[in-house]
Amino acid sequence: MHHLFESNLPRVDYFPFSKYTTPGFRLAEFLLETASLSSQVRVSNMDYTGGPTLFPLHRCKTIHLVRHGQGIHNVEGDKNYKAYLSPEYFDAYLTTLGWQQVDNLRKHVHASGLFKRIELVVTSPLLRTMQTAAGVFGGGGYKDRMDILPLMVANTGYSDRSAISSLDCPPIIAHELCREHLGVHPCDSRRSISEYQCLFPAIDLSLIESDEDTLWKANVRETKEEVMARGIKFLNWLLTRKEKEIAVVSHNGLLFHTVNAFGTDCHPFVKKEICKRFANCELRSMVIVDRSMIGSDSSITKYPGKIPSAANLPSEAADEKILENDDNLNDK
User: Fold this and answer.
1) Could you state, in order of their start, the residue ranges of all structural domains in the chain?
2) Which residues contact 182 (CB under 8 A, 6 or more apart)?
3) 47: pLDDT confidence band, cut at 50, 70 and 90?
């Protein structure tokens, strides 16, 4: 298989999972269906190999990739790219339409049963992504009490929204590796962590090393290759987590350049499923495979057999043993 950054980075595989979100679905069923993409062909000077792909279940994780809802920067930026250079869009917040998109995605993850399966949510530490993470995956309305912190306080980012509870929802943790394309665009710069802690009290910000934004530079923008490498590094970090089903709330640039590192060994239609750009509040589900044992998960379903132990030589193994004995006699 071809893998981007193969010489420097561990091998990771991606599989589209969007049509497998019904309750009760099992990863093994998905992998078996993937095997139906058989044969080996050449299309547009690109080789891909179909046929079965088999991996141990405990080496796989399901990740649900989500782009944030519409931000104030998206409205003008979609019309004129130079609008992204405007300082007024610093750490852009969600629009009213963006919140409607968040509400609809929240309904979907609950109706599909996905909400109950997600063990962890990882979000980019920007205002629009944390608003989206809290709105989609948070608890219900927050009732003031001393022992429970809200995920998001009322009216965060001019939202005119009530506070969101941290009860009955998966933990949400922020990580700088899944931030948007860094540099030049003020909308992709973040506030101080101390300010975010006041706005999102129950989001875990402990992985952020610097209170101020030291990653964003006003006159230097990451290359696409650097964004892709950072995205791969983020996926490798996900593989070290104990959780098996994780939602990621991020940005179009980071998600798009990351997924485009994959799919060159797939059918062109599968690659297209993996590598297209993300719409606002789109959720795309994937299976990520730990081919290089980055994580340390052990199987919870594997059973060793022979309990109680007894003599049990399979017929095929017996045949091989007879042949081996015959060969030994011929050698004498």
Assistant:
1) 64-289
2) 188, 215, 216, 217, 221, 222, 227
3) low
Beta-bridge partner residues of 164: 141, 152
Cβ proximity of 131 and 71 under 8 Å: no
Is 68 catalytic? The answer is: yes
Instruction: Write the class of the CATH domain 64-289.
Output: alpha beta
User: Is residue 180 among the annotated active site residues?
Assistant: yes
**Residue of 68, 175, 181, 267 marked catalytic:** 68
Q: Give residue for tokens 């939202």.
A: 159
Distance, in Å, from the CA atom of 134 to the CA atom of 44, rounded to the nearest integer, reads 43
Give residue-wise pLDDT tens across range 104-119. Answer: 999 999 999 999 999 9
Tell me the Ramachandran region of residue 26: left when phi exceeds 0, alpha when psi lies from -120 to 50, beta otherwise: beta
Q: Note the pLDDT tens digit of each residue in 224-279.
A: 999 999 999 999 999 999 999 999 999 999 999 999 999 888 888 999 999 999 99
Out of 176, 180, 222, 273, pick the active-site residue: 180
Burial bucket for residue 79 (CB in 10 Å: 0-12, 13-18, 19+): exposed
